[in-house]
């Protein structure tokens, strides 16, 4: 009875507090599912079930690939291909994010060096970093410096993407670590820019190299007048600060044409290409561009 009451309490908290929930068999199933998936995730690295996909970042005026974003996927033996939204939160809760994040960084750096050895490497490769990696993973800076040195990564070739919420959460405790990241040889990008509640002062206080406009605004173009206005303001702010911008989740030519007219020349999304395995990304890089009917 106490266990069931505890599960109902946690459900009430998850749904926003100031409410009550009754216990149901569904909660028991969720607990068993959580426990099973946690154990399977811990074994996924040893079983080589994780894989990196790469999504191109494309310059509109030329169709040239100017960067790639590395995105982790889990080839689950029973569930098939799982996207990060389904297992990264679990990894953060259980501490598995530390070995998982280190694996992603090492594999991405290794792949970047392989492309550079072939003479086809993009100007930069972006890697997502969660707040948990910076807050609970001891030795994050040391691991970053070691991987950059091991794979002979040049300054700015690896870019760490942090959301606004991650930036706000980590700068309160680990602001000095973020300030040291560029000195280690990596650059910093703010992902989902415009959706968080961080102070704009962070843009001047920390060495931010790029902003990635949040997909909710891009998807609202051209129907949503507010999305258009907010996007223009963010692009204007970035120009004033001398910060480069990438538009995420571009899906149509109309969206892309608006972004170009507003001054954003680099896009990423299904309009150009979905995230692909390294072999397919290598084909893109050999051509030097992504071929779409509109480019």
From TrEMBL:
Q: What is this protein called?
A: EAL domain-containing protein
Taking every annotated instance into account, which residue ranges of this chain make up the domain EAL?
A: 34-289
For this protein, the record's PROSITE patterns field holds: EAL (PS50883), GGDEF (PS50887)
Quote the CDD domains the UniProt record gives. Answer: EAL
**Database matches in InterPro entries:** Cyclic-di-GMP_PDE-like, EAL_dom, EAL_sf, GGDEF_dom
Origin: domain of life: Bacteria
Show where the GGDEF domain sits: 1-25
């Amino acid at each position: 009875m106490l266990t069931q009451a505890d599960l109902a309490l946690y459900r009430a908290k998850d749904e926003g507090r100031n409410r009550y929930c009754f216990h149901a068999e569904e909660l028991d199933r969720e607990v068993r599912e959580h426990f099973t998936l946690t154990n399977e995730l811990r074994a996924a690295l040893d079983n080589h079930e994780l894989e990196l996909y790469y999504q191109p970042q494309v310059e509109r005026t030329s169709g040239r690939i100017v960067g790639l974003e590395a995105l982790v996927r889990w080839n689950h033996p029973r569930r098939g291909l799982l996207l990060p939204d389904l297992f990264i939160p679990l990894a953060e809760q259980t501490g598995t994010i530390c070995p998982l994040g280190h694996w992603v960084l090492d594999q991405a750096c290794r792949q970047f060096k392989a492309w550079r050895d072939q003479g086809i490497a993009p100007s930069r490769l972006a890697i997502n970093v969660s707040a948990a990696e910076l807050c609970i993973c001891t030795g994050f800076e040391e691991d970053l410096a070691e991987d950059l040195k091991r794979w002979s990564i040049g300054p700015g070739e690896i870019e760490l993407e942090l959301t606004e919420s991650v930036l706000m959460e980590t700068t309160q405790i680990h602001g000095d670590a973020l300030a040291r990241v560029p000195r280690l040889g990596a650059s910093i990008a703010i992902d989902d820019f415009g959706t968080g509640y961080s102070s704009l002062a962070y843009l001047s206080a920390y060495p931010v190299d790029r902003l990635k406009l949040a997909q909710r605004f891009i998807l609202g173009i051209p129907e949503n007048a507010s999305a258009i206005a907010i996007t223009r303001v963010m692009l204007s702010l970035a120009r004033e600060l001398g910060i480069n911008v990438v538009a995420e989740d571009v899906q149509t030519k109309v969206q892309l044409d608006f972004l170009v007219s507003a001054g954003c020349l680099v896009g990423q999304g299904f309009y150009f290409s979905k995230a692909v395995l390294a072999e397919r990304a290598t084909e893109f890089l050999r051509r030097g561009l992504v071929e779409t009917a509109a480019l």
